[in-house]
Design goal:
4-stranded antiparallel beta sheet; alpha+beta; 9 strands; globular; binds zinc ion
């Protein structure tokens, strides 16, 4: 990760009525649709919720880069509907232990030693 201050100003992507940007501090993607604001753990979850954003070249490149980095296809994003609300879900490599399941000599707290965590987003 770069340590320069330029990183604190997120690059804004605009598609139709959507505004999307990556907030480095919170390590989350944000999408603004008028008054609605949603945050996403990963670019894949964001694009699953807002497919229009895949039209943005740098977002597409980000997804491709992530896929190359993990050297295997991105985990499928599942869509669930629960009492009328939609939820999207994916299994991600644990960011805390980078998938090893260990933090030092102890099993990783964040993923219970599994090396992966389930992440999800409710869609408004
Ligand atoms: Zn972990």
């Amino acid at each position: 990760m770069e340590n320069d201050n330029r990183g604190s100003v997120p690059k804004i992507h605009e598609v139709d009525n959507l505004i999307a940007y990556y907030n480095r501090d919170g390590r989350k993607w944000w999408v603004e649709e008028g008054e609605n604001k949603s945050s996403f753990e990963t670019v894949e979850l964001m694009v699953a919720a807002y497919p229009n954003l895949e039209a943005v070249r740098s977002i597409r490149q980000n997804m491709i880069r992530r896929e190359v980095e993990r050297k295997e296809p991105a985990p499928p994003v599942k869509e669930l509907v629960h009492s009328g609300k939609k939820k999207i879900e994916a299994i991600e490599e644990c960011y805390y232990c980078s998938g090893s399941g260990m933090a030092g000599f102890m099993p990783c707290d964040n993923c219970d030693g599994k090396g992966s965590v389930k992440i999800s987003n409710w869609l408004s």
